[in-house]
């Protein structure tokens, strides 16, 4: 699956027409993580090769230039969380659950992205105990960006996608680039990254058209209010 994710996101990177990616799963479970039974009879080199493939997949998702929205409809366990956290944000149904039991399985995982998503102490508590975290707690901790009833999940995702696609594609790509790069540096360097993106946007986009559309919307609103 990780190799297929790498192939898929390589294709996405070579397809400029793609403006958004929705990563979702079929069935009652989003992802149950690694099948530990696969390691029976294997050696350390085999395990390390599998883990390297996994991290390449996560990196391909995280490096995607366009917005990547993750939809979690059910149980998410272990490496499934790594896949989800590699996306830009998570929309989850109220039937979703989250568990990071790597230490209980005698392995190591989710130690980096999880702490960056919810904080060091909370990540340690989840990793140490391996307990199941309900979707509402994941929302409260910031792991999930939006929580919706299961019956409304598809329509909510569609609405989010439509809203993202309504924005100019270059501005959206540059915004993602600035947030991602700025999160890895100090404020002054982050502002320099944003200024460079602003300059590129002015050179390569129809920014005057955006100003005109905004003025038209505001003007229309004022007329309605006056009436």
TrEMBL record:
<keyword id="KW-0443">Lipid metabolism</keyword>
<dbReference type="GO" id="GO:0016829">
    <property type="term" value="F:lyase activity"/>
</dbReference>
<dbReference type="InterPro" id="IPR001753">
    <property type="entry name" value="Enoyl-CoA_hydra/iso"/>
</dbReference>
<keyword id="KW-0456">Lyase</keyword>
<dbReference type="Pfam" id="PF00378">
    <property type="entry name" value="ECH_1"/>
</dbReference>
<dbReference type="InterPro" id="IPR029045">
    <property type="entry name" value="ClpP/crotonase-like_dom_sf"/>
</dbReference>
<protein>
    <submittedName>
        <fullName>Enoyl-CoA hydratase/isomerase family protein</fullName>
    </submittedName>
</protein>
<dbReference type="GO" id="GO:0006635">
    <property type="term" value="P:fatty acid beta-oxidation"/>
</dbReference>
<keyword id="KW-0614">Plasmid</keyword>
